[in-house]
Amino acid sequence: DGGITQSPKYLFRKEGQNVTLSCEQNLNHDAMYWYRQDPGQGLRLIYYSQIVNDFQKGDIAEGYSVSREKKESFPLTVTSAQKNPTAFYLCASRVTGSSNQPQHFGDGTRLSIL
Amino acid sequence: EDQVTQSPEALRLQEGESSSLNCSYTVSGLRGLFWYRQDPGKGPEFLFTLYSAGEEKEKERLKATLTKKESFLHITAPKPEDSATYLCAPNNAGNMLTFGGGTRLMVKP
Predict the structure, then answer these.
(1) A108 contacts in B (CB within 8 Å)?
(2) CA angle A98, A24, B81 (to 5 degrees)
(3) Three-class secondary structure assignment of B16-63
């Protein structure tokens, strides 16, 4: 079945540590997105990529980094510069070229501080 | 700046008690509005896309409608399995979504 796989499901970060969240899709979608979700708040966009080897900052990119070396993969690194990383992180993808295509989401990674 | 407000934040219903969820938005160059359902610990699941004012979409007990400034998700005779958080997300001229904070629906048997 086609879909988006995020791993790990749960992740713990120590002080000063960088951690990387994985996102893989087999939907052949060009565009991929990373969102952060905090309790009671809407999803906030961290980074997005419309095509391989290209990505743009979203609304809350500080303390995060991404790469897009393959169409299927869009990993997110939460750096030590992100002082409040505890949140639920969601990866999404969509077909480009048409505004009527929804974003499809993975099942998220919950990141906590040790 | 695009803005989206969903109300109420939480809604408790008895099984069979119909109600509506509201999504008010201010978006530059609206190019559709999406509704999602999110279960605890899961990613949002796509429900509907609405493109223009006056449009309606239905799926089982859910019906979504759209005006120029609002969208409504009507739930008819809900069941406990309809309990979830419902998110709306207008799509702007740049094909970027802005998500509301969601409405957490709890349906008691």
Answers:
(1) 41-43
(2) 75
(3) CCCEEEEEEEECCCCCCEEEEEECCCCCCEEEEEECCCCCEEEECCEE
Total CB pairs under 8 A between chain A and B? 52
Chain A closest-CA separation from residue B101 CA (Å):
4
Distances (CA, A) of B28 to B91, B102, B108: 9, 21, 39
Structure tokens at A18: 């960088």
Per-residue pLDDT of chain A (114 residues; tens, 9 = 90+): 679 999 999 999 888 899 999 999 999 999 999 999 998 788 999 999 999 999 999 999 999 999 999 999 999 999 998 989 999 999 999 998 776 789 999 999 999 988
Which chain B residues touch A89 with a CB distance below 8 Å?
none
